[in-house]
Every structure is written in structure tokens, then in C-alpha cells.
Design goal:
TIM Barrel; Urease, subunit C, domain 1; binds fe (iii) ion; 8-stranded mixed β-sheet; cytoplasm; alpha/beta; 8-stranded parallel β-sheet; histidine metabolism; binds N-(iminomethyl)-L-glutamic acid; single chain
């Protein structure tokens, strides 16, 4: 039996567990218990709260000077892919924008070429490096998308790699089919979309969600609606890359299609933000992408929260528009550029991120999985403040120390 007491925790952060995501003003509520302890039996939390002498355990971890939180959840990544695209960095600095690079056959299509060439093992080995870093940075739940195959064989290859990662590493994953991520060179977009729709029956066994890139030059609102409607009919929850660059009404479509999340939303309309407050769709904001694309305008997190919406944050790790595995860095950008409060940020990377991918994580109630991070920080505001470095000192996955 594995039992552990974590004692002398300076402050214990307890995001509120609820049936749905935290919305609007609730996002600024975070219970914090000072001088706390956590007791773990096997893989679960059996006590968390003020220090008491009521428990014995075979192992004690002294968390003096540290704060503790549920392990972080990264609800939007493209972690399985071949190759890299550092050559685009210079192009972008010369003023060639992201969608122009894609239109010229680069960008996502470049990564598609490299992903097709890579074997299952090569993709696994490459993604493993990112996953190990994510765990070291305190992330124990990760969503992983396909979308660099654009054909049956290679989309399934990516999803199989993603599933193998979930088996081999001490973390929880959710897998997303993103077949309609770009239009292959020379293909007709309607015909290609139909091919991806035809794959839904098969990918249902490999993926938890169906996602689409709705953007100028990629898939239109009508095409996205057709895809999402079909996925819904087949019983798959849907997600959408929406209003990243142009305001197409992707957020409204997400809500209409009862999407579990709408992601990016930099250019979301005021009407979309109003509707968000009356829906259970989670806005997954990706400010690292805005930063990395060198844009000035960030998603309007404040407007979404003030309209009563649920906001989450993710890295969007991918080889083109946001090359970082560091969710703590995203917390800093959310503070600086999205003007989110520390409490909102912590809820956005724990409980709301978990709701964005329908997983019971991101809280530390009795009976929850003991996915815990001890942070070398004096308080919870410190992590978005001291940016760019790793503050995670000890990471426990289901009660086992996986990083120290
Ligand atoms: O979420 N916007 C579309 N998809 C990814 C980027 C993928 C890539 O550039 O390789 C995103 O930003
Ligand atoms: Fe993405």
C-alpha cells in the first residue's frame, strides 16, 4: 500500500469542484488553506485541509516553504507531429503572415509532410520529449490532437501514438481527431472534408473529440457546421479552432453545436461573447499563440468572463504557431496580456481546463486522484509573476512521485 502525508504546506490551492466549468465571477473564487496537509492512500486524496495528527503514513513529504495545487491540465496541444519549422521564424519576421505561409504550402502542410514521413516510433520518441517536459512543469493531463496526417493512415498513426503515450507515461490524456486541419495541396476542400467526415465512424474508437480549423482559407462556417453536426449525430463531442485570425462567427457556431470547447477566439464577436455566458462551452484561450505569432490583439478574456463565460488556458503546443510545452509561461502571458487575475488563471489551468476536455481532474477533493504539484513559490500569485522558469518542485501522479 502506498500512503503519503504531505505536511507543512504553506498554502494549499483548492479550485472548486462542480458539475460544470466555473463561469463569470465564480472564476475569481479560489479556496486557499494556509498551513495545510494532504493525506494520500494508494492513488487518491483521503484528507486535505488544516494540519492534524489524525493520520499516519509510511512516507512523509515535508513541503515547508512550498505551495500545493492540483496538477495542471493542458486542454489543447498538437504534441504528436514530425519535424519542426524554425525556418518560418525568419519568414514571419520579414512580414509573411501565418495564413500566407500556409497558402504557399508551408505551415501546417509542411508539418504534414514531415509527419507522413515519420514512423510510429519516431513520432512517439519525439512527442515523449515534450511530454516529459510537460510533466516536469506540473502538467499531468494533456489533450492531444491529430491533424498532421490529413489521410486515414496518417491520422490514425498520430492517434495511435497519442494513445501509446497515455499508456507509457504517468499522465492522463484525451485524444482529438482534427482531420480537417488544412486542405491538402491540390485537393478540393468539400471533397476533402467529406473524406474526413467519412472517417468519423472509425476514429470514434481512437478519439474522444472531433475538432476542425474554421478560418479564412481553411474551412468555412458552413463546412464546419456540416462536420460538427455529423460528429454530434455520431455521438462524438465537438471542438473548434474558432475566430483565431478572422471574425467568422466560430464562437457562435461552437455554442450552436454544443461544443465542449471553442478554442483561440482572438477575433470572437461581441455577440459570441454574450452567448458564451449562457452556454456550457468552455473558451480555451491560447495567448502563447498570439504572442508567438507576434500579434498585438489578444483574446478578450475580460469580456468573456464579464459576460458570465467559462475561460480556460492551454499551451496550444505545436511546431508552428506556439512552440512551448510550458503552461506556467502561458499563465504569465494570461496575466500580462489577457489581464486575468491570479485566481482566474489558476482555475483556468485546473478545473476549467478539465471541463474543456471532460475529465475529472483539476481539483483536490477527498476521493480525487492524487495528482498534485508542490511549487517552490511563496504564494499562488508568484507563478504568473516570475515568468519563463519552472517552479514545480515535486510532482505526484496518482500518489506516485514522478518528478522531484
Ligand atoms: O492551434 N490554427 C491551427 N492549428 C494550430 C497550429 C498548427 C500549426 O501551425 O502547425 C493552432 O494554432
Ligand atoms: Fe491548435
Amino acid at each position: 500500500m502506498n500512503d503519503i502525508i504531505i505536511k507543512n504546506i504553506k498554502s494549499l490551492l483548492l479550485p472548486k469542484k462542480s458539475a460544470g466549468p466555473l463561469k463569470g465571477k465564480e472564476m475569481d473564487e479560489l479556496e486557499i488553506i494556509d498551513q495545510a496537509m494532504i493525506v494520500i492512500k494508494d492513488d487518491k486524496v483521503v484528507y486535505r485541509g488544516a494540519e492534524t495528527d489524525d493520520y499516519q503514513a509510511s512516507e512523509t513529504i515535508d513541503a515547508s516553504g512550498m505551495i500545493a495545487s492540483p496538477a495542471l491540465v493542458d486542454p489543447h496541444t498538437h504534441v504528436v507531429h514530425g519535424g519542426s519549422r524554425e525556418h518560418e521564424m525568419a519568414l514571419k519576421r520579414q512580414g509573411v503572415d501565418y495564413l500566407t505561409i500556409l497558402e504557399q504550402g508551408g505551415g501546417i502542410l509542411n508539418t504534414v509532410e514531415q509527419t507522413k514521413k515519420a514512423t510510429h516510433q519516431e513520432l512517439f520518441d519525439k512527442a515523449s520529449k515534450n511530454i516529459i517536459r510537460m510533466i516536469q512543469y506540473g502538467v499531468l493531463t494533456v489533450e492531444s490532437k491529430s491533424g498532421y496526417g490529413l489521410d486515414r493512415e496518417n491520422e490514425l498513426k498520430q492517434l495511435e501514438v497519442s494513445r501509446e503515450i497515455a499508456e507509457k507515461f504517468p499522465l492522463t490524456m484525451r485524444h482529438t481527431f482534427l482531420g480537417p486541419h488544412a486542405i491538402p495541396k491540390g485537393a478540393n476542400s468539400d471533397a476533402f472534408l467529406d473524406e474526413m467526415i467519412d472517417l468519423l465512424d472509425e476514429v470514434k474508437d481512437y478519439a474522444d473529440f472531433a475538432d476542425i480549423f474554421c478560418e479564412t482559407g481553411v474551412f468555412t462556417i458552413d463546412q464546419s457546421r456540416k462536420y460538427m453536426e455529423t460528429a454530434n449525430e455520431k455521438g462524438m463531442r465537438v471542438k473548434i479552432h474558432a475566430d483565431e485570425i478572422d471574425p467568422l462567427g466560430g464562437l457562435e457556431l461552437a455554442i450552436e453545436q454544443n461544443a465542449i470547447s471553442a478554442d483561440h477566439l482572438v477575433a470572437a464577436s461581441d455577440e459570441g461573447k454574450r452567448q458564451l455566458g449562457n452556454s456550457d462551452t468552455v473558451a480555451v484561450l491560447l495567448p502563447g499563440t498570439t504572442f508567438y505569432l507576434g500579434k498585438e490583439e489578444y483574446a478578450d478574456a475580460r469580456g468573456m468572463i464579464e459576460n458570465g463565460g467559462a475561460v480556460s488556458l492551454a499551451t496550444d503546443y505545436n511546431p508552428g504557431s506556439c512552440v512551448t510545452d510550458n503552461l506556467q509561461m502561458i499563465m504569465a502571458i494570461a496575466s500580462l496580456k489577457l489581464k486575468m487575475t491570479p485566481n482566474e488563471i489558476w482555475n483556468a489551468v485546473t478545473v476549467n481546463a478539465a471541463h474543456a476536455i471532460d475529465v475529472d481532474k483539476g481539483t483536490l477533493e477527498v476521493g480525487d486522484d492524487a495528482d498534485i504539484v508542490l511549487w517552490d513559490a511563496p504564494n499562488h500569485e508568484y507563478i504568473p509573476y516570475h515568468y519563463g522558469v519552472n517552479h514545480a518542485r515535486t510532482v505526484l501522479a496518482k500518489g506516485q512521485v514522478v518528478y522531484r
